[in-house]
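note to self — DONT lose this again. spent like an hour looking for the file last time. sequence + predicted structure for the chain T wanted, 265 res
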Amino acid sequence: MSTNRADLAEHLRLHGLGEHADRLAHEVATIGLLLEPGGSGLSRIGGLPLLPPDVAWPRTSDDRPLSFLAALDLAEIGPLLGPQWPTSGVLMFYADIDPEHIEDLLSGVPNADGAEARVFATDTPTPVDVPSTLVERERFLDVTLVLDERVVLPRTALSLPDGYEIWHRLGFPEDHDGRYDEALEAMVSSRSGAPDAPEHWVGGHAAGVQVNQPDPADTILLLRLASDSDIRFDFLDGGTIQFRIPEEALGRSDWSAVVGMADSA
């Protein structure tokens, strides 16, 4: 049912949500991109970091180096997500994911010099020079490169909102005895093979494990990384990191409006 709304409605009916199935499938569900292994472009998680030319490695205000998380090629993902998305340039995501210094990121931080999360955009992404001597290289990789490289292939998929008492926000008269949650878990299982499989997203209704992001109607998800041991991203207690931007800022490519945030189970 990746992008087939009729199939999604039928899935919801099978889980006892018949009176709400068509509304949820055709009015509430949104298209996002699952970042799955594969592809041959610039879009990837981890690996050798990229930065715009002449931009220094980002560091926090107290001089801790950030970790390179991902690069997304807007020419690859923009056309899949709608007219508000730019279709040129590369976004590069960094964050301080040291659990001993995560407090500010849990509250959300702006994309500004010295912040614990940064997003850069450029048409000419440049690989960062890694120190050549063995000792310097090992220290550099220890401190800054924590994610194994995974080249990703964006795949369109429908998503529905999740969260505590989400049934109330969606206009259900009661919680339907957990039927909505069961339907969501079954959606994830059909995509990933298990209800708790890590999913990395761009766009859509994807949320943190505590569902602590702003209203999706007000912000757009630029990137959500879930804790994923296969790429050495064992983040907090099954946590996530998200980068979000107001829709109107996305339309004018105002990356200064991005907010980075983390959460933990």
